[in-house]
RNA sequence: CGGGCCGGAGUAUGCCGGUAGUACAUCUGCUUUGGGAGCAGACAGACCGAGUUCAAUUCUCGGCGGCCCGACCA
């Protein structure tokens, strides 16, 4: 894409209403725009990165047998009343509204109820199980305090997968597969090293759940890490002796860390299938409730976490897997001169070779282009200057390390 | 939800009970082009309401909005 066609502008200064590093940099670089507290728009560059993250998650969900759907945001109170979660005293993050005729609606904050009710029409026999269904969908949560930029927002896209299994054993088997898929996702987006499977409270669903917690000072959780096992314990269950008998973790020697919760996996059991009548006939013809689990990741929060972890004083730094473009081609030529003709030709060649390239073809100063390129954080920068015309070799700069190498056109296209 | 701080050109800020200043951005012209260029000119601003006062952007109160700390995060 030609940068002259990109409608977003970068900013030299951070907005005064953001303190979080992720929001400051993403706003400065033109990735996001704040509508209100806890409500952000994704602009062209931001959407590209968000979609890269989503694509990785989708691949991993498909690999473990997930079937993708899209449920509605508008929620029918009837099914939520059946599960007992319509009351604001039970779920305090509800956004609720009314139809013109006065009847009440909710904006979905999660989708156990809707999907479970839906699946009653599609699951009736043990032959219909297991099923794994997921979506990327906007969730609405009326957080009492939105904070930390895009890390804790009131409207956000969430990948939520729900598993429907015959019994606890087959559920457990899938649960571990999902855990492995999650680990693969975090590794692929570049935060695997710092992310720990963490024992946490299961809330009202089960004794424990697992969270994926990424070590980062900007986080709002506290965990205790067993480095040798690559496991951790959330502070909320740290004092519970049962955690240690269940997990085999030795409480002595755990290392405390501030973390960001980047994902969670829950065993739901039959809580929702009981409430909403989702059962199947087993081989003997006996009606049995379906055993469920739920598995969430917020792609936006993941994006914010990557920023918090990798950005430097010059701006964003993206891993190749989630960068909005693979290459930032920076021309130092004036419109129409020899340098920009060489840059134009290289741009066309890179496009033909299938490389995702952002081409800075604008008629602005070199300093500005470099500074903005650093801010935007594309992993590789190819600079086309006078020397490129003279020698035929292009300067390639690695954003993360600042390493510079010279490459010929043939090498760049290889 | 409790507490604190804040609200001014598109963005970021200085000063101030009496004429709203600066930088960047934008527009025009000329000069520039390997690290957010220079000069000259132009456009552009006080969240809302009430009170105090001769006079309020400035002080007081309320509302709305924003950030931070804490609680909460099913």
Description:
There is one protein chain. The chain has 414 residues and is α+β, with helices and mostly antiparallel strands. The chain folds into 2 domains: 3-310, 2-Layer Sandwich (BirA Bifunctional Protein, domain 2); 327-413, 3-Layer(aba) Sandwich (Rossmann fold), CATH 3.40.50. Helices cover 30% and strands 29% of the residues. The protein contains 12 helices and 21 strands. It has helices at 21-28, 44-63, 77-83, 112-119, 168-188, 241-247, 271-276, 299-310, 338-352, 366-376, 386-391, 409-413; strands spanning 32-36, 39-42, 67-68, 74-75, 95-98, 104-107, 131-140, 155-165, 195-201, 208-215, 221-226, 231-234, 255-269, 279-281, 287-289, 291-297, 327-331, 357-360, 380-384, 393-398, 404-408. Strands 9-10-13-11-12 form a 5-stranded mixed beta barrel. A 5-stranded mixed β-sheet has the order 18-17-19-20-21, sandwiched between helices. The longest helix is centred in the middle third of the chain and has 21 residues, at 168-188. The model has no long low-confidence stretch (mean pLDDT 95). It binds one RNA strand of 74 nucleotides through residues 9-19, 34, 36-37, 85, 90-93, 109-110, 141, 143-145, 147, 152, 203-205, 220, 332-334, 363-372, 374-375, 383, 385-387, 395.
CATH topology of the largest domain: BirA Bifunctional Protein, domain 2
CATH superfamily of the largest domain: Bira Bifunctional Protein, Domain 2
Shape field: elongated
- Biggest sheet, in brief? 5 strands, mixed, barrel
Rounded radius of gyration (Å): 25 Å
| CATH architectural type of the largest domain | 2-Layer Sandwich
């Amino acid at each position: 894409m030609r940068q002259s066609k990109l409608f977003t502008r970068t900013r030299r200064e951070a907005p005064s209403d953001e303190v979080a590093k992720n929001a400051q940099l993403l706003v400065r670089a033109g990735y996001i725009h704040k509508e209100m507290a806890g409500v952000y728009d994704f602009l062209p560059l931001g959407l590209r990165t968000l979609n890269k993250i989503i694509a990785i998650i989708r691949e991993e969900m498909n690999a473990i047998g997930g079937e993708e759907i899209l449920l509605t945001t508008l929620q029918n109170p009837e099914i939520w009343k059946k599960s007992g979660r319509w009351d604001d005293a039970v779920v305090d993050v509800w956004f609720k509204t009314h139809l013109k005729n006065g009847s009440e609606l909710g904006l979905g904050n999660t989708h156990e109820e809707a999907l479970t009710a839906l699946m009653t029409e599609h699951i009736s026999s043990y032959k219909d199980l297991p099923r794994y269904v997921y979506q990327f969908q906007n969730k609405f949560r009326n957080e009492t305090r939105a904070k930390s930029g895009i890390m804790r927002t009131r409207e956000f896209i969430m990948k939520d997968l729900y598993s429907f299994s015959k019994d606890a054993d087959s559920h457990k088997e899938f649960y571990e597969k999902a855990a492995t898929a999650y680990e693969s996702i975090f590794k692929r987006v570049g935060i695997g090293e710092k992310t720990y499977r963490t024992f946490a409270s299961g809330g009202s669903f089960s004794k424990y759940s697992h969270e994926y917690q990424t070590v980062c000072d900007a986080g709002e959780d506290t965990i205790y890490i067993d480095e040798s096992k690559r496991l951790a314990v959330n502070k909320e269950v740290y004092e519970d002796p049962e955690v240690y008998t269940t997990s085999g973790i030795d409480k002595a020697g755990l290392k405390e860390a501030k973390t960001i919760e980047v994902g969670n996996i829950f065993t739901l059991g039959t809580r929702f299938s009981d409430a909403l009548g989702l059962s199947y006939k087993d081989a003997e013809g006996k009606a049995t409730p379906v055993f469920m689990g739920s598995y969430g990741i917020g792609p936006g929060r993941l994006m914010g976490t990557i920023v918090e972890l990798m950005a430097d004083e010059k701006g964003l730094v993206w891993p190749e897997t989630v960068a909005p473009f693979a290459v930032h081609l920076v021309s130092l030529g004036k419109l129409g001169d020899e340098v920009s003709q060489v840059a134009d030709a290289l741009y066309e060649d890179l496009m033909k070779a299938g490389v995702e390239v952002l081409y800075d073809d604008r008629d602005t100063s070199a300093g500005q282009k470099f500074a903005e390129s650093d801010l935007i954080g594309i992993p590789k920068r190819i600079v086309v200057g006078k020397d490129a015309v003279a020698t035929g070799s292009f300067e390639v700069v690695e954003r993360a390390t600042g390493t510079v190498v010279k490459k010929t056109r043939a090498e760049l296209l290889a």
